[in-house]
Amino acid sequence: MDACNITPELAKHLIQAQFPEYGALAVSSVETQGHDNRTYRLGDDLLIRMPIDANYALKVPQEQKFLPRLAKKVRMPIPQPIKMGGPSEQYPYPFSIYKWLEGRSADQETVDDRALETIAVSLANFLQELQGITDIEGPCPGQHNWWRGDPVRVYDQEARTQIAHLSGKIDSRRALQLWERACSTQRKKKPVWIHGDFAASNILIQNRKVSGIIDFGGMAMGDPACDLVIAWTYLKGNARELFIREMDLDKDTWLRAQAWALWKATFTLLRLVDEESYEASLEKKLIEEILDAAFL
């Protein structure tokens, strides 16, 4: 379904048809929309999340099944499913109603270095609690989460192609060296719970502190390296070092984390139309920081 065809009016219609108990509540757009879903506020205390295509719709049943159980194991507020809607003639996918969580996405907030350090520790503590859950068996990585949690070499061909196409724009020799080293390692411990899309857009901030973690559609059990990219994509300076120390993970895991971050940054850079844009300069700087990380 074309994301442009998902509107507040469509969301309102679905709610009135499937959940008449909420039919009188106002439906309004949120400040910033994500890529995978269209999100609308429902009254003051609820929200609606509507996948934009069939691949993203695979995540809905996973969230409905596991989030209530995971919420009992972590201290950080995470989304609370209230209802799951079904496909209709107007909209072909399942969708969710969640409890509203207060806060703004971290990529929409500006915080000082001291606050960022506090945030870094909170993020590390959350991931450690998530990874420490051993009595809930979760899904394996797959199409629903684009294989996050699998060995990083699942994207070997794509990464090599991206690095080759960026030759002359980034240090492709060092990038390929990092990638190959990461692909030669493998996790030897049991799979752990991962968020799968641990990005600034899915971290809520209120009063300069983390108030919640959202969008668990990419969750699975696997290698936690993919969740560590936040060290480069959001954290910096002392906050980054604090996060790394708090996580207390082995060198090979961090090497794979670098590779995940490199894959995503090269993917993003290649898709920017203006190679001289501010956004492109940020991605190039990010790649330099990934390549310069001490784990090499």
Short note summarizing the structure:
The chain has 296 residues and is of the alpha+beta class. It is built from ten helices and ten strands. It has helices spanning 8-18, 54-57, 59-70, 113-131, 156-165, 172-183, 230-233, 237-247, 251-270, 278-292; strands spanning 27-29, 37-42, 46-51, 81-85, 95-99, 104-105, 192-194, 203-206, 209-213, 220-222.
Average pLDDT number: 95
Strand content: 5-15%
Question: Count of DSSP helices?
Answer: 10
Major sheet attributes = 5 strands, antiparallel
- What structural class is derived from the secondary structure elements? alpha+beta
**Which bin fits the share of residues in helices?**
25-40%
Overall 3D form: globular
**H/E element sequence:** HEEEHHEEEHHHEEEEHHHH
What distance separates the N and C termini? 44 Å
What is the strand tally? Answer: 10
Question: Can you describe this structure?
Answer:
The chain has 296 residues and is α+β, with helices and mostly antiparallel strands. The protein is built from ten helices and ten strands. The strands form three sheets. The chain has a five-stranded antiparallel sheet with strand order 1-2-3-5-4, with helices on both faces. A three-stranded antiparallel sheet has the order 6-8-9, covered by helices on one side. It has a two-stranded antiparallel ribbon with strand order 7-10. A hairpin with a 3-residue loop joins strand 2 and strand 3. It is globular. The termini are far apart.
